[in-house]
Amino acid sequence: MEDQKPALGRFTWKVMNFSKLTDQKYYSDIFAVDGCKCLLSRQILIYPKGSSEGFFSIYLKVADHETLPIGWSREVSFSLTIINQNCGAHSTKHGGQCNFNQQTSCLGFSSFKHLNELHDLTKGFLVNDTLVVEAEVIVNKATPPVGFHLSLPQRSPQHAAVQANEFESYLTGLEDFIKSTTKTGGSSSDCRTPSSEEVEKAKNLLKECLSDFFELSIKDKLLAALVTLSSAKSGLSSEQKRSIQTFWANFDDFFSDYLTCEEDEFRFELHRFGTEQMLCAMKRNRETHVLYKKLLDNLSKNEEELDRKLQEVKSKKRKLMSDWKVLMTESEEAKLRYTTHEKKLEEAEERRRRAEERRARLNAVWSNLKAQFT
Asked: Where is the MATH domain (predicted)?
C-alpha cells in the first residue's frame, strides 16, 4: 500500500436552546474529512444530560460506517472542544488517537465536563442558551484506501459505488482520468462547451469563493466553478483564462499545501493544548505541595504539643508510681504495727479479765466485812 497523506477536517456545531433539550442524545450535521487520498464522513454525538451521571458526554461518530467495505479501519487523531464564549483560552478540550473500525465506530468521553460547571452562566460555556462544540479530525491512515470508494469531487459525473470484483479496472480508469485531468488542466476533448449562462453562473460562484480565505467548506463550489470556466470558450478575458487554467492545473498541489498547513496548525494546537494541560497540572501540583506543607506544619505543631503532654503524663506517672511505692511501704509498716498492737491488746484484755476477777473477790471480802459491823 502506498503512503497515505493525512486528511484533516474541522467542524463547529452551535447547539441552540441547550437547556431546553429533552431527548437523551443529539447528532450534529455530517461533516467530511477530506484529502487527496482519504475522505471520511463524521458527526458529533452529544448527551446533554450525560451518559455518565453528572457529566456532559460527547462522542465522535463515523456517519457512513454501514456503507464502508468489510475490514475498514481509520487511524485518527482527534480533539473535541466545548468553546468558552467569554474567553477562548479557557475552553475545555480533550482528544487523542484512536482506531475506528467495524466494531468501534463511535468514540469519545462519557465524563467530558461536569454539568454544574457547564450550566454555570458565569463560566462562559452557555451564552444565550447556546453551546458551541468543535471537532478537529486528522485521518492518518485508511484501510483499505478509500479512493476506490469515492467520487472525484465535481470533476466527473461518474461516481457509482464499485463492487470488489471491479476494483482493479475501476482503479486503472480512475488513475487515467486523474492523469489526463492534471495534464489538460481539467478539460477533455469530449467535454461540452458550457453556455454563457453557465459561465456567468460559474464566475459568480468563483467570486463568492474568492470573497474570503480558502476553506474546506468552499472546495466543492470552487471545483464546480473551475470545471465550468476551464472549458469556457467565451465570457472570460485571456488573462482570466490563463489564471483559471494555471490555478486548475496546480489545484492538487494548492489543496495539498493547504491540508499540510491545516495539519501543522492542528498538530500545533494539540501540542499547545498538551503543554497547557501539563502547565495546569504543574500548577495544581504546586498548590497541592503548598497545602501539604501547611498540613505538615500543623501536624508538626500538634506533634510537639502531644509530645509535651506525653512528657507531662509520663512525669505524673512516675510520681504516682513513686507515691504508690511509698504508700505500699507505709501500708506494710502499718500492718506490722497492727499485728503487734493486736497481740498487746489480747494480753491487756487477759490482764483486765484477771483484774475483774480479783475485783470481784475483793468486793466479796469487803461486803462480808461490812456486814459484820453494820
From this structure: 8-137
Domain that holds residue 122: 7-143
pTM: 0.41
Tell whether omega for the bond before 6 is within 30 degrees of 0, i.e. cis.
no
Domain count within the chain: 1
Q: Is residue 29 part of a domain?
A: yes
- Residue given cell 493544548 in the structure block: 273
To which residue does cell 459484820 refer?
372
Size (the chain), residues: 374
Would residue 157 count as lying in a domain?
no
The DSSP letter of residue 331 is: H
Instruction: Based on DSSP, count helices (H) and strands (E) in the chain, helices before strands.
Output: 6, 10
Cβ neighbours of residue 357 closer than 8 Å, sequence gap 6 or more: none
The three-point CA angle 13-17-23 to 5° equals 85
Q: Treating both helix axes as pointing N-terminal to C-terminal, what angle do 251-373 and 219-230 enclose, rounded to 10 degrees? A: 180
Distance CA 227, CA 234 (A): 14
Q: What CATH number does the domain containing 86 carry?
A: 2.60.210.10
8 A C-beta contact, residue 178 and residue 184: no
Residue at 122 is within a domain:
yes
Closest CA to 186 of 255, 252, 248: 248
Beta bridge partners of 7: 139
- Residue 60 to residues 17, 50, 101, 122, 222, Cα–Cα distance (Å): 22, 15, 13, 28, 28
- Parallel, antiparallel, or unpaired: how do β-strands 130-143 and 31-34 relate? unpaired
The cell numbers describing 177, all together, are 482520468
Give the three-class secondary structure for 261. helix
Q: Do the domain assignments include residue 373?
A: no
